[in-house]
């Protein structure tokens, strides 16, 4: 089973991924962290030195590797994963792709001005965040089987709601039972 968490920057994909990983006892793979670990540079450095397209190539290659690896994983994706068609095809095919959502005000508080996010580093205006989110929204929706609001929930509660709404514990039991 692979659970993909997608959604705009600052919607809580990494922290909810960690909770899901603990609750379901499935390893977590944070795509941004994995790209940084393999490349040896930070995301802002990759963007600045090689350009956004080079980062998107690394992202696409990693997603493909995950999708064809047959490993059980919780995958916290970078916010721009849905920009490429091949990535959307992979995400759509998977029954456990979940979009996390948050209000632009929440995103601004959580991630606005973050030096580690080249696309949000200089963006502090809520209107700017809203307009960027709206552009990506159809792409996230196209890929996700479940869309879940995070604003008024803790990461633990969000993880629990995902597990319940997708019946993940039962699916996991069936999978591990049939592998044994
Ligand atoms: C990006 C989101 C980031 C990271 C990169 C680009 C985006 O990930 O992959 O800075 O285009 O939305 P998070 O969503 O984890 O911040």
Structure write-up:
The protein contains 9 helices and 5 strands. The model has no long low-confidence stretch (mean pLDDT 95). It is α/β, with parallel strands linked by helices and 180 residues long. Bound molecules: shikimate-3-phosphate.
Quick summary:
This protein is α/β, with parallel strands linked by helices and 180 residues long.
Bound chemical compounds = shikimate-3-phosphate
The end-to-end span amounts to 15 Å
Number of helices: 9
User: Can you count the beta strands?
Assistant: 5
Average pLDDT metric: 95
Give helix and strand order, one letter per element, not per position: EHEHHHEHEHHEHH
The share of residues in helices is 55-70%
- Percent strand equals 5-15%
Major sheet: arrangement of strands = 2-3-1-4-5
Largest beta-sheet characterization: 5 strands, parallel
Low-confidence runs of at least 5 consecutive residues: none
Structural class, by secondary structure, is: alpha/beta
What gyration radius follows from the Cα positions, in whole Å?
16 Å
Describe the global form.
globular
